[in-house]
Amino acid sequence: PFCRLGARELSSIKPQLDAHNVRLVGIGLEDVGVQEFVEGNYFTAELYIDSQKKAYQALGFKRLSFFNLLSAMFGKKSRDAMGKVKEQGLGGDTKGDGYQNGGTLVVSQGGEDVLLCYKQDAPSENVDPEEIIKALCIPQNPPQEVETGAMSAESDKSEKFTA
């Protein structure tokens, strides 16, 4: 379920990335559950499978032991993340390799510079999408003024609110 949550959170910034010609690419580690993952639209970008986990090894993404996984699953961060999973109705299962942690890598155009390298310490931890936006120097969306169209008899000015 944590993969679905992380994928959904990353997908939330895809419109901002698209607006700045930044590709969002996901690399899964196995075919188990991929069809359901794709059909559920948890990740709305390019998705590849690295069944030999070469990218995971090259990036130093760690593999948990049984005891590390067990303690990580019952920690506060996991409970909080599970609450988000349930709140968003993401479901999930425990099929597949739950021992392999992943992360997020942001590279400059052409791949010459690493702008952000986030490595999970536990399966429930994911990079904050705003960290990706910052690493790419994409300006935050400023609050926009919204006209309500409310007019009073004494004034011909419409009220404005910041959203």
TrEMBL record:
<dbReference type="InterPro" id="IPR032801">
    <property type="entry name" value="PXL2A/B/C"/>
</dbReference>
<keyword id="KW-0963">Cytoplasm</keyword>
<dbReference type="Pfam" id="PF13911">
    <property type="entry name" value="AhpC-TSA_2"/>
</dbReference>
<protein>
    <submittedName>
        <fullName>Prostamide/prostaglandin F synthase-like</fullName>
    </submittedName>
</protein>
<feature type="region of interest" description="Disordered">
    <location>
        <begin position="142"/>
        <end position="163"/>
    </location>
</feature>
<feature type="compositionally biased region" description="Basic and acidic residues">
    <location>
        <begin position="154"/>
        <end position="163"/>
    </location>
</feature>
<keyword id="KW-0560">Oxidoreductase</keyword>
